[in-house]
Design goal:
The protein is of the alpha+beta class. A 7-stranded mixed beta sheet has the order 14-20-19-18-17-15-16, with helices on both faces. It is elongated, with a radius of gyration of 34 Å. Helix 4 (140-159) runs parallel beside helix 8 (270-282), helix 6 (194-214) crosses helix 10 (295-311) and helix 10 (295-311) runs antiparallel to helix 11 (317-325). Strand 4 and strand 5 form a beta hairpin. It is built from 24 helices and 25 strands. Bound molecules: 4'-deoxy-4'-aminopyridoxal-5'-phosphate. Residues 451-453, 456, 479-482, 550, 583, 585-586, 612-613 line the site of 4'-deoxy-4'-aminopyridoxal-5'-phosphate (PMP). The site of 4'-deoxy-4'-aminopyridoxal-5'-phosphate has 14 residues, from helix 16.
Amino acid sequence: MDTTTDLRSITPAEADVLVRAALPAYGIDPDKAVLEMVKHRENFVYKLARAGEPDLVLRLHRPGLRTDAQIGAEMNFLAAAAERGIAVPKALRAADGSLFISAIDGFGRCCQIDLQEWITGSAQMGSIDEGLFGTSTLEPAAFRQLGTELASLHDMAEELDPRDWDSRGAWDAAGLTGSAPLWGDPLALSGMDHAQRSLLRGALDAAGAELADFGTAGDRYGPIHADLTPENVLVADGVLRVIDFDDFGPGYFLFDLVTALFWYQPHPRYGEFHDALLAGYRSVRELDRAHLLLWPALRLARGASYLGWAAERDGQPDSEFITENLLPLVLRLAENYPKGLDMTSSDTDKLLARRHATIGTHSPLFYSEPISLASADGVWLTAADGTRYLDGYNNVPHVGHCNPVVVEAARAQGMTLNLHSRYLNEPMVDYAEKLLATFPAPLERVFFTNTGSESNELALRVARQHTGNRGVLVSDFSYHGNTTSLAELTTGLAVRESLGAHVRPVHIPDLDHAAGLDEDALTARALAQVEEAIASLQAAGFGLSAVLLDPLFSTEGLNRVPRGYVAGLVQRVHAAGGLVISDEVQSGFGRTGESMWGFSLHGIAPDLVTLGKPMGNGHPMGAVVTTTELLEEFGAHNMYFNTFAGNPVSAAIGTAVLAVMGEQDLMGNSKVLGARAKQALAPMAAASSIAGAVKGTGLFFGVEINHPDGAPWADGAKAVIEHMKSHGVLVSRIGPNDNVLKMRPPMVINTGQLDLLVAAFANALASVEAGAPAPTT
Ligand code: PMP
C-alpha cells in the first residue's frame, strides 16, 4: 500500500517526458520503447516493452518523497537479495553501474528513476478482498512457500550493515504505535466514537510498550519489506516473487509475517494458513517463543497502520472500504489485546495434550484437526483462532447459542433460589405445566431428569415394572444413552456389553432402500420381522416390556419409513402387552417443523416420551412424559428422587426455551426452512454422481454420499464435511454406513444462513465429486 496519492506536483504528461529522457542512461533508445503506465500513486510505475527484449518495470519516484540515500538503500537491498537467488525482481543497472538515476522535473526538483525486471505471466498470490471475505481458494502450501522465501529474505537482511538501510522510515514502536506513525494517525479516522478511540489508543500504547521492551536486537529487527500482503507477491509457474519494496525499512522481522496473514484473519482457513506460513519460515529460520508472544501487538499495530492510511484519505472509496470492513476487526483486536484473539497451533496442541492427560484419548473429537472453540452467538461459533463457523450441526443450542433470554433466565433464578425438588417451589411446577401443555392427552405427567440417558433408563424401568416383562425392541442401528441397561441395547455405536439376551433389534425400513419392494411389501416385510422378534422374546421367557424408538430414526440415517410402518409396530407392541417409548431427544421440541413431538409424524400414541438435549438449550435437562396411570403406579412403589432434576434454575431455563420457541415461532421456521433446504438439495443431489437420497424432516436433513457406482461412500461424506468445515460450515454424518450427512442447525437459523449452509454443501459436493474415483461398474 502506498503512503500518499498526492501527485499534484507532477502530471502524467510531465512524468512521461522525464521517463523518456532518462532511458538513454540505461542504454535504451526511447524511440524503440513502448511505455505503458500501470499505476500512479506514490510513484509512477510503467511497463516498458521493447522488441525482442524482456519487459521491464520502470518506477519514477515522486519528487521529494525519498532521498537518494533511501532509494539507494532499497535498490541495494533488492540487488543483494536477487544475487542470493531470493525471490525478488532483478534490478537493472544504468550504463554507469548505478541502480537508479536522478531526473530533474520542470520545477527543478530531483526525482529518482529505477528499472527492474517485469515478471512475465504472473498473477498476484492473493488479494485483500479474498482474504477479508473468505473467498480465497489458496491452499496452505502457498503460505508455506511464502514463509520459506520470507525467512531467506530475513536471513540475508540480518547480515546487512545497518548503514545500508537505516535511512528509511522505521517500523519500530514509534513508527507503528507512536503519535506520528508512518502511515498516518489511526485515531484520526472518522467513523469511530469516543469510546472506540480511547480503546484503540489504550491498546496501542500497551502494544507500543511491548514492542519497545522487545527491543531491536539484530536477530529480531532489521530491514523488512513491511507491506508484504499477498497482493505484493507474484506467482509465475509456481515460483513466488516478492515485489513492491516501497515501504522497505527497518522493522521487526515478525511484522512481515503478521502482514502476510493480516487480511486472511476472517478466512475460515486462517488457522491453516497461519500454521503453514510459520512452518515454512521455521524450516529456514528460527522463530522463538519471544517472537510469537509479540504477535498480538504487531497485529494490532498492523491493523492500526491501515486505519492511519485510511485516515489520510478520508472520504475516498479506499478509506470507506477500510472503515466499513477493517475497523470492526481492528477494534476487536484492540478489545482483546493483549490476550490476542488467536491461539497458535501449538496452543491448540497443548490444550489437546492437557485434555488427553485428564479425560484420556478415547473421548470423541470431531474433525481430523479438532476445532478449539472460544465463543458462540446464535448460529455462529468462533474458534480460538478467530475463525467463525456457521453451526449446521448442533441441536442442543436449540434457540441459538448463548441465547440471551435463556442466559438471563438462568442468571435471575440463580440469584433468587436454586435447590432440589424436595421443597415446594414455583418455577418447577410452572415449567411442568407449560411443558405438559405441549402434549396431547393422556400424556399429562412428567418425571424430571438431567439427560437423555437418564430419561430412557427411567422409561425402561417404568415399562418393566408395569408389564412385568423384560424384553425390549430397538432398531438395529440406534443409540439411546450410556447407562448399563442402555448399553445392552445399543446397536449403533461401539460398546463392550453384548446385546442383552432380552433385546431384539429390528430393521427400520427405508423407502430409499427398498430393494425393489413397493411400499406395502416393504411394510409387510418389516412388520413380519417385528412379529418374529416379539414371538422370540416371548418364547425366551422375557415377554415384551417396551419398544424404544427415535421417531426420526436419526442414528439410523433418517430413514424414510413407509406410511403405516410405525403405527403397525406400535399396534403389535401394544397387542403383546408392551409399552411404547418415543425417544424425542433428537426429534422433539419442534425440530421436524411438523409438530412439537416426533411421534405425531406417525400418528401414534406413545406411553412414555423421553426428552433431553434441546430442552435446556445447553443446560443439562431431561424428562419422561407419561400418563397419570403409569406415573402413579411407578410412584407408588418407588421413591423417585433426582437431586438436580427440575431444580428452579433448570426449570427457569426450560421455561425460557419454550417462550423463545413460541415468540419466534421456531417450529414454523423449521418447517419453512426445512422445505427450502430440501428444495435446494434435491436438484443438487439429482445432478451429482456422488449424492443419493435427500433425507430428513424440517431442520434435520441430510444427503447420502455414495461412490459414483452407487455404493455408500463414508470417506466421501467425510471429505464433504471437512471441505465444509474448511469453508466455515459445520455438519456431521450418520447412518450404518456413515455416509449420510447430518445437517441440523440451531432452530434460529435464518434464510440467509441456511442458504450459506446449502451453498457450502454445494461447493463441497462439487469438489469431492471432482476428485471421486471412477465407477468400478
Ligand atoms: N437418545 C437419543 C436418540 C440420543 O441421540 C442421545 C444422545 N445422542 C441420547 C438418547 C442420550 O442422551 P444423553 O447424551 O443426554 O444422555
